[in-house]
Amino acid sequence: MSIQLHEENGGRLIVVQVSGTLVKADYEQFVPEFERLVREHGKLRLLFDMSGFHGWELSAAWEDLKFGVKHLSDIERLAMIGEKKWQQGMAVFCKPFTKAQIRYFDHTEVAEARRWIEQEDRTD
Prior knowledge:
Elements lengths: L2 E6 L4 E6 L1 E3 L1 H18 L2 E6 L3 E4 L1 H14 L3 E8 L2 H10 L6 E6 L3 H9 L6
């Protein structure tokens, strides 16, 4: 699977690692697991690592859009880690569609991303 996730801090922090090119089957496994975590913990904080991510097949892009529309309100904070300009653009693109705090971090700033995502206050 090109999407891997694991829980930290009692499940309120979800680390998501995407790599390669995502296909529809990746979402068929990822989405139910994400939805289970939302039912268990409520709003989540995501550390979304896109290092080594190349994009989506067309069917996976559609699944990603549906996921975003349905679940952006389930995310309290989203730290996006990447290594390419288009990945940084994804963080900017997401902001109007959610009340979640979203920040982009370069792949060299993982420690800073972790500090920000784990902060208790609501300031950047």
